[in-house]
Amino acid sequence: MSKTLAELISEVTVNTKYEDIPQYALDHAKMLTLDVLASMVGTRHVISSEIARSVAEELGGPEEATIVGCKKKVAAHNAAFANAIQCYGLDFVDDHNESNAHPSPVTYPVSFNLSELYHRTGKEFLEACCLGNEVVCRMGSAYMGEMYDQGFHPTSTCGTMGGVISAAKLMKLNELKTSYAQGIAGSGVAGLMAWNSQGSFTKRYQAGRPSMDCVVAARLADKGFNGPTDIYESTDGLLHAYSFHDHYDTKWITEDLGKKWIFASSSIKVYPCCRYSGGHLDACLEIVKKYHPDPAKIEKIFIRSSKQTLHLLAEPRKWDPKNIVDLQFSMPYQASAAFLHGKFGVAELDTALIEDPLIKKMIRNTEAVLDEEFENRYPDHYSSAVTITMADGTEYSAVVDDPKGDWRNPVTYEDVENKFRDLANSVYADPARTEKVIAFVSDLENQPDMAVLMQLVNDEA
Asked: Could you say which of 3, 26, 39, 324 is the most buried, measured as most Cβ atoms within 10 Å of its Cβ?
C-alpha cells in the first residue's frame, strides 16, 4: 500500500538531519531567523502586539517559553501565539511566490519556543525551520496560486501544516506520531481572507492561532491522540477543501521532497506591507531616484499590475484607507506616500498621514489597471509598472518584474542585519543588545542551546 502525503512528509521529517540539507537552504533559514526576530522585537509597541502579549499572559500556564516583550514565561503554545502575532505585526516577514504564503510567521515562532523549551541546538532549530517552511511552500504551491480565489489565506492554512512539522521535528516524534500531528493540525486549519474587507488585525491572528494549534497538535500526537493520516488527499481533506474548483497538483508536494528545497527562494521583504506592493513601490522609488519629481506637481499616477495584486491592493475601498492594515494594503496610498517621502518604511504606516492634503490629492489621482502580460507572468513574477504625469505633461515611467528581495533580485545578509538593527534599536535601550543577538545568529549552527537566544532577545523586557 502506497504512503499518504502526510506519511511521505513524516518520513522525510524524521529522517532528515542537518547534514542532509544543502547549504543554500541552511543559509536562507539562517537569514530568516534574523529577519523574523526583527519583526518579533520591532513590533513591541504595535497595538496588536500589545494585545497579543496581554492575552497570552492571561492564558498563562507552566513557565515553559518566552513571550518577547514580557518578563514571565508561559506555556509554549501561548508564547508561540503571541510571538507569531508580533512577528506578523508589520507584515514584514518573507513571502514565497508560487505558494502565495508567508512561510515563516508560524514555523519560526513555534521553533523558537520549542527549541527554548527543549534546549535544542542551533542545528536542530535550523532543521525544524527548513522542514516546516518547505511544507508551507510546497503545500501552497500545490493550490496553483488559486487558494485566494477560494477565500482562504495561505499563510494560515499552509502555515499550520508547516508549523506542525517544525513542532514534530523539535519534539522528536516518530513517523506515525508526526502523521497524526499533521492530521490533528489539518483538521483545524482555517484562515479566511475576510480581514481584507475592513483592514482587520485578524490577518495577524492568522499567524498566532496556527502557531498555538501546531504546538497543541504535536503534544496531543506525542501522547497517542490520533488524526487522519490522509489529511491532504482524502475526499474531505485539505486539497479538496481549500482548492479553487478542485484545481491542485500534488507533484508540488512530492517531487524531490527532501532533495530540492523550494522555500529557499522565498523573498525577504524590504517594505512593511503586503508582498504584492513590492513591484509598484520599487517602480515609484526608481522614478523618484532617477527623476526627482516634485510631488506637488504630480497630476496622475497610473499603475499596471496583475489580477491578484489589484484584488488585494486596489479594490475601491483602498482609495479611502482607515487604519494601519489598510495602509499596508492600499496601492494608492503606498504610491502617494512613496512619492511624497521618497521611501516607504515603518514611518509611512502612521495613519495621521491619511489626512495629508498632498497624499489625499495623489490618492484621488491614482488609477490602477490590469496588465494582461503581467497577469500571464504571475505567480512566477510579481510585475508592476508605474507612470506618473506631471503638471506640464511630462511623463516618467518604471517597470519592475522582480521586486527587491525576490530571489532574482535578492537582499544580502548584511541587509537583513541592518533591518534587524533598525527595528530592534527602536525598542532596545542599549544598542549593544542588538549586536549580541546579531552575533548569536551569525554563529547559529554552532550554538549549543537556543534558550540562550530567547534570553538575549528578551533581557530588557
From this structure: 39
- Are 97 and 237 in the same domain? yes
Q: How many domains does the chain have?
A: 2
Residues 37 and 78 in one domain: yes
Could you read off the pLDDT of 80-119 as tens digits, one per residue? 999 999 999 999 999 999 999 999 999 999 999 999 999 9
233 in Cβ contact with 5 (< 8 Å): yes
Q: Are residues 280 and 263 in the same domain?
A: no
CATH number for 389 = 3.30.1330.120
Q: Could you tell me the CATH number of the domain that includes residue 104?
A: 1.10.4100.10
DSSP line for 284-309: HHHHHHHH---GGGEEEEEEEE-HHH
State which H helix or E strand residue 387 sits in.
strand 384-390
Same domain, 244 and 312: no
C-alpha cell at 448: 549549543
Q: For 39-61, write each residue's pLDDT tens digit.
A: 999 999 999 999 999 999 999 99
Q: Are 369 and 304 in contact (CB under 8 A)?
A: yes
Pairing of strands 384-390, 395-400: antiparallel
Buried b or exposed e, range 301-330, using 16+ CB within 10 angstroms: bbbbbbebbbebbbeeebeebeebbbbbbb
Q: Is 51 helix (H, G, I), strand (E, B) or coil?
A: helix
Could you tell me if 57 and 115 lie in one domain? yes
What are the residues whose beta carbons fall under 8 Å from the beta carbon of 409, sequence distance 6 or more?
Answer: 402, 403
Please report the pLDDT score of residue 41 as a whole number.
Answer: 97
Residue-wise pLDDT for 320-339, tens only, equals 999 999 999 999 999 999 99
Q: Which residue, among 22, 13, 66, has the nearest Cα to 455 in the 3D structure?
A: 66
Residue at 408 is within a domain: no
171/225 same-domain check: yes
Q: What is the pTM of this model?
A: 0.96
Instruction: Compute the average pLDDT of residues 136-165.
Output: 96
* C-alpha closest to that of 142 among 265, 253, 233, 10: 253
**Residue 302 structural domain:** 275-400
Does 153 lie in the same domain as 114? yes
Provide the grid cell at 311: 484584488
Cα–Cα distance between 11 and 157 in angstroms, integer?
22
Q: How far apart are CA 148 and CA 306, in angstroms?
A: 14
Query: In the structure grid, which three cell numbers stand for residue 405, read together?
Result: 528581495
Residues 123 and 255 in one domain: yes
Q: Is the peptide bond before 379 cis (omega within 30 degrees of 0)?
A: yes
Q: Which residues contact 122 (CB under 8 A, 6 or more apart)?
A: 443, 444, 445, 446, 447, 448, 450
